[in-house]
């Protein structure tokens, strides 16, 4: 791992997936990264040592991500050393829409394969659906049919691994019953303010790697100012952001923090070669008042017409 050391990832800088492929432990998030995205992606890879970028068609920045990747590769980084994730949006959750959606994503990213393609949310939306959805805008989702198509993308070498996001234990069990290629990764909201232990345990049982999204608590519930996180950071002479990311790595999840500030992009990958001591790790696990930031309510709930009338229903009553 000498070369990985040289770019700052350290010797434990990746996790191994069920497929045998590796996923770098820290990736750059790109949701709401806006017009700075290409610059952030290039900075992350070429200057900070990231080898993993997380994006999605829904973020509206895939062309920008593609420009940033291209700039980094023109600077000498090999495609095979990068790990690029994208996601299939809810309007495309029908078997005949999967491959065209992936092809559009590849074109926008200027790539000929993805390392990981994820179902973004397990709910199908009608084209042009409102937020929140109006009556009839949340459609039936053929999970098995869509997964077959995802499997076809792996078989044809267009994506190396496939996975899901925002799944419940119930949905994961249903998928595991019919999948020929099991999901390699499950991406979920996770930080000390929402540990999400139930799905985490289910994933461990099935050997599915978990990536923690919104690992800093996102912009809505940024935990960098939490007094306990600050206290641990001061004690270890690290930043609160680094403590939150290191906490997630020590739990066994990869992380995809988003920043568009160069100094934070660099700070967020300096999370190797040191540890949060057990007592502080456990104290961080004990942060009270756990709550999701992303409830899915504004995307999928129609309180009058359903089919999901509350966030509780979105999460199959498992929260
Ligand atoms: P994060 O938890 O990564 O937090 C991002 C926020 O924290 C931004 O406001 C950022 O501001 C700030 N920030 C970044 N670094 C630091 C730091 N070191 N100290 C303090 N604040 C910091 O939130 P996201 O919700 O963006 O999640 C990360 C990524 O996960 C997304 O970008 C996306 O790629 C993925 N994701 C996937 C989802 C899914 O459904 N599969 C859902 C949500 C996210 P600034 O940019 O100004 O630095
Ligand atoms: C609306 C998409 C949530 C972030 O992945
Ligand atoms: C193509 C984006 C590079 C800017 O730093």
UniProtKB/TrEMBL annotation:
The keyword NADP appears for this protein: yes
- Domain NADP-dependent oxidoreductase residue range list: 26-284
The catalytic residues are: 59
Does the keyword Zinc-finger feature in the UniProt annotation?
A: no
Q: Where is this site: Lowers pKa of active site Tyr?
A: 87
Query: Which positions are annotated as binding substrate?
Result: 120
Q: Which domain of life is it from?
A: Eukaryota
Pfam families (alphabetical): Aldo_ket_red (PF00248)
Keywords in alphabetical order, please: NADP, Nucleotide-binding, Oxidoreductase
Which residues are recorded as modified (Cysteine sulfenic acid (-SOH))?
285
Q: Quick one: which residues bind NADP(+)?
A: 30-31, 54, 165-166, 214, 216, 218-219, 222, 258-261, 264, 267-268
* GO MF terms held by the record: nucleotide binding; oxidoreductase activity
Q: Which family does it belong to?
A: Belongs to the aldo/keto reductase family.
Q: What is this protein called?
A: Aldose reductase
The source organism is Zea mays (Maize)
